[in-house]
Design goal:
4-stranded antiparallel sheet, Rossmann fold, Immunoglobulin-like, alpha+beta
Length: 491
């Protein structure tokens, strides 16, 4: 018996909502959800806040019989604020709620699904959207709709809300291609831009139409859309052929790389570098920072290095200020080929050798390491940390990306002091923080970056004092001719 697959979309148009409230004593705001029962499965939509006309994103996929073209038994059960409101029965969709009152209708839309199994990942941002909030800017979000054969549109995705901004950058999202266009790359896709309101009466900002084929062009001039005086951009698009496990190091020209060089926003490495670096640089008098990369093939012969100067000059690895470090980082991404394995020990030992030359307390070194969490030489790294623990050196590790950071937690040494070959580190010199814990998804980047900087620097004063005390170095008199110990920052 041949079968086909149907995708069921549910929405509702409800009136007499005030009568519901009076009869059932419900709150003023209504948060509808729908449960579906069939002969073989059970499903539930998402909850939509504060609306009498819910348009649910979540779909139900049912297997159907080609011979009789029937869905089988379907039962829909709607509730508001966890209170059952009415039930719909198969075919006739009769419903009950307030006796003698027509409460509204539940609308089912069905379309036979294609055999397309592809998925796509995309990310969008906008610039200079309309200000809709009286006391602020806007809280924008996007709603994607695919077009139907009858000219109507069916919702297929909603982005998160970005609070209080006219220049939002939404998080990347993944969507099945058949949900977006049912496998038809030229089918119209409509995108609405709204300003979120707590009471559910979201303000319409603007709209544009596109297609899967256009979106798949990714970041270029064709994927810039005018929206009510502002512009919306496709930052990145990963096609089904490209859709593999994210390349956490990878080619910086590809949006799957954590080093991706987007013209619209800094990548995670650059954001962490800027946030922490701008705080530490205030403790360095000359603002000259040696900056190194690890894990790359270098031109011209492709030699692999685990401690190469970002400046490209082995005799002068210094960069001027944090902006100089960022510039060298971006320039390095254009000239080297990122390559594994990822060895920490060489760069730790390089900075430790510098620290070992000045142990009289006149200088203190801070090494900032930004990494995706992979350590290929854990044994050697632990030994390097143990050796460095007796030197005027602290190590800050910022983990970026979605990886597990068990190795970093071990190096952090807050619970169990790092050891190597039976030797315990003389003192705890490593502080680790996962960058993802400091990304403010409401869009308040300044707040989250300040919090990151505060936490990663929290242990530096105690680590500096512990070294001075261990060497019996007394504080110098507060004279203008005797400056405080200088923090030398390495990256």
């Amino acid at each position: 018996m041949d079968c086909f697959t149907l995708q069921i979309t549910i929405n509702a148009k409800l009136h007499n909502i005030c009568e519901f409230k009076l009869l059932f004593g419900l709150e003023l705001f209504f948060d509808p959800t729908v449960f579906l029962y069939s002969e073989s499965q059970f499903g539930r939509t998402e909850v939509i806040d504060n609306t009498r006309n819910p348009d649910f994103v979540r779909k139900f996929v049912l297997m159907c019989n080609h011979e009789c073209h029937r869905l089988g038994t379907l039962v829909l059960f709607m509730q508001f604020n966890n209170y059952p409101l009415f039930q719909s029965l198969p075919v006739s969709l009769t419903h009950s709620g307030i006796p003698g009152k027509k409460c509204g209708v539940i609308i089912l839309t069905a379309e036979e699904l294609s055999n397309c199994r592809d998925i796509a990942t995309m990310q969008l941002c906008a610039n200079k959207l309309d200000k809709k909030d009286f006391f602020g800017k806007s809280d924008p979000f996007l709603v994607f709709y695919r077009s139907n054969e009858d000219g109507t549109f069916t919702i297929c995705h909603k982005t998160e809300v970005i609070k209080n901004t006219l220049n939002p950058v939404w998080q990347p999202f993944t969507i099945p291609v058949r949900a977006l266009c049912n496998g038809d790359y030229d089918r119209t896709v409509k995108v609405d831009v709204y300003d979120w309101d707590r009471d559910g009466s979201h303000d319409f900002i603007g709209e544009f139409t596109t297609s899967y084929r256009e979106l798949s062009r990714g970041q270029n001039q064709f994927n810039v859309y005018e929206v009510s005086g502002g512009s919306l951009f496709v930052i990145a698009f990963v096609s089904p052929q490209q859709h593999q496990t994210p390349d956490l190091g990878g080619n910086p020209s590809q949006p799957t790389s954590l080093h991706y060089m987007s013209p619209y926003q800094m990548n995670a490495y650059a954001m962490a570098l800027k946030a922490v670096g701008e705080i530490i640089q205030d403790y360095d008098s000359d603002k000259l920072f040696p900056a190194y990369g690890f894990g790359a093939k270098l031109p011209p012969d492709g030699k692999i290095s685990h401690a190469f100067p970002l400046s490209g000059d082995a005799d002068n690895p210094n960069c001027v200020g944090i902006e100089g470090v960022l510039e060298a980082y971006f320039q390095s991404l254009r000239t080297v080929q990122l390559y594994g394995p990822t060895n920490f020990a060489p760069v730790i030992n390089k900075v430790a050798n510098c620290a070992a030359e000045i142990t009289d307390g006149s200088q203190y070194f801070v090494l900032l390491m930004i990494t995706d969490g992979v350590i290929s030489d854990m044994v050697q790294t632990k030994e390097a940390v143990v050796n460095a623990a007796s030197l005027p050196l602290s190590i800050i590790i910022v983990g970026v990306g979605p990886a597990e950071f068990d190795a970093m937690e071990e190096l952090d040494g807050d619970e169990v002091r790092v050891s190597s070959r039976g030797r315990l580190a003389e003192r705890d010199i490593v502080q680790f923080v996962p960058f993802r814990d400091y990304i403010d998804r409401s869009g308040n980047q300044v707040l989250s970056m300040a919090r990151l900087a505060k936490d990663v620097l929290a242990e530096i004063p105690d680590q500096l004092l512990s070294f001075m005390k261990s060497r019996g170095i007394e504080p110098r008199p507060a004279l203008s001719t005797s400056p405080l110990p200088e923090l030398h920052r390495h990256i």
